[in-house]
Design a protein that fits this description.
- This protein has about 400 residues and is of the alpha/beta class.
- The protein has helices at about 25-30, 45-50, 65-85, 95-105, 125-140, 150-160, 190-200, 220-235, 255-260, 275-280, 295-305, 315-320, 335-345, 350-365, 370-385; strands spanning about 5-10, 35-40, 55-60, 90, 110-115, 145-150, 170, 205-210, 240-245, 265-270, 285, 310, 325-330.
- The protein has a seven-stranded parallel beta sheet, sandwiched between helices. Strands 10-9-8-11-12-13 form a six-stranded parallel beta sheet, with helices on both faces.
- The chain starts with 5 loop residues before the first strand and ends in an 11-residue tail after the last helix.
Length: about 400
């Protein structure tokens, strides 16, 4: 197969997901790979097409479990793949992964890649965990290769019996991080810190604990608020800056949302796209999640020289170097979370040291060009083996 004839299809659920692929489409196109993007319609899909010069295909795909809609989405994906006839189909996240791998198998796409961004089943129990387990298992079976965004996520998948080790690969992150330009503290206006604080009524001399993410239980919002109650009593001049929208599908407990909205020292911003100025307004970022793929906000904060506190779970363990760029605590351990936050608030030198180390770590391990090149080399390797890979595997 000639390199200039290679078509690569990426499948996501939401149009918003293409924010995490900026630069990758143009990089692949420059190397003779025709990049096709499939997701639910939306402005971010259109923007991605215009900025990257790639071909986009809107197909409605729900993030929720909706059997009838999912069957229709899978049929539409199959029809689209039959028309494009790509050499490679790469599907992202659990929902797009299972639908994309089934559609790709039905369309007999030569190379099928399931790109795993993390496993929600790790934070679930009962019937839902079993359903998610089987979805992951089927996606892995139908894929020729499974790429994980973190070593700890890959290890968890193998341990759970989801993916055979021979199929599992690791490429750190989906798209790398633009630490050179976008998430570079040197490129943020010098008054950004004070302007963000002024906008939200936070004094210039306050100690600010930040949280970035959807406001729902999986992100550990209830645990954060409990820890905050302890921290705020010790540090009367501290404030909590919460950046993100409330997720109504899996909401935090009502009493937690009520405190977030009523505490005068907690500031809710809603969804923010231009994050670098907000990181400059923080002295510390906290993400006490029960489940993450990698924890991109931890990488963003680290690149902005902000120390971080995360949980000791697959994904986050790759984003944070415990004791070097930040601190890891066990998920659900409110007392340990409060101690970690307190340690940073009372020690400006610790904040500075871990912030500097965080930027070095992200710049070295999550450079965008390195991630893109690793993906490109993986495509080349798989294409070189194309004649050795049967078109229809028996599962």
């Amino acid at each position: 197969m000639a390199q200039d004839s290679i078509d690569l299809v990426h499948i996501n659920t939401e149009a918003l997901s293409w924010l995490f692929f900026v630069g990758q489409g143009a990089f692949m196109k420059a190397r003779g790979i025709q990049f096709h993007a499939i997701s639910s319609p939306g402005e971010y899909l259109d923007t991605f097409a215009a900025s990257e010069g790639v071909t986009v295909h809107p197909v409605d795909i729900s993030r929720a479990i909706t059997p009838l809609k999912d069957i229709r989405s899978m049929y539409c994906l199959w029809r689209r793949l039959c028309r494009i006839r790509p050499a490679i189909v790469e599907a992202h996240t659990s929902k797009a992964g299972i639908l994309g791998m089934i559609a790709g198998w039905m369309a007999r796409i030569p190379i099928r890649i399931y790109h795993n961004h993390g496993m929600a089943l790790l934070s679930e129990t009962g019937a839902k965990r079993m359903l998610l387990w089987w979805s992951e298992r089927v996606a892995c079976l139908l894929a020729h290769e499974v790429i994980y965004v973190a070593e700890s996520v890959r290890d968890a998948a193998v341990q759970e019996g989801l993916c055979p080790p021979r199929k599992a690969r690791v490429i750190s992150s989906i798209n790398g991080l633009d630490a050179a330009v976008r998430f570079n503290p040197g490129n943020v206006p010098p008054n950004a810190r004070s302007e963000v604080r002024r906008l939200h009524g936070i004094p210039d001399d306050a100690l600010v604990v930040g949280f970035v993410g959807r406001i729902f239980w999986v992100k550990g919002v209830a645990e954060l608020v409990s820890a905050w109650n302890d921290v705020s009593r010790r540090f009367g001049a501290s404030h909590l800056l919460v950046v993100g929208a409330v997720d109504s599908r899996l909401p935090a407990p009502p009493e937690v949302v009520e405190q977030l909205q009523s505490d005068p020292r907690i500031h809710l911003t809603g969804y923010i796209e231009d994050m670098p100025p907000y990181y400059t307004a923080m002295d510390l970022l906290v993400l006490p999640s029960f489940y993450e793929g990698l924890g991109y906000v931890l990488l963003e904060a680290s690149a902005m020289q902000v120390p971080v506190v995360g949980t000791r779970i697959p994904g986050i363990m790759d984003a944070v170097c415990d004791g070097v760029t930040g601190t890891l605590v066990d998920p659900g351990d409110v007392a340990a979370l409060a101690r970690a936050i307190t340690a940073y608030l009372k020690d400006p030198e610790l904040r500075r040291t871990h912030g500097v180390a965080g930027r070095e770590y992200v710049s070295d391990k999550f450079c965008q060009e390195q991630v893109w090149e690793a993906l490109y080399q993986e495509y080349k390797r798989l294409l070189a083996q194309l004649d050795l890979v049967p078109m229809g595997e028996s599962f």
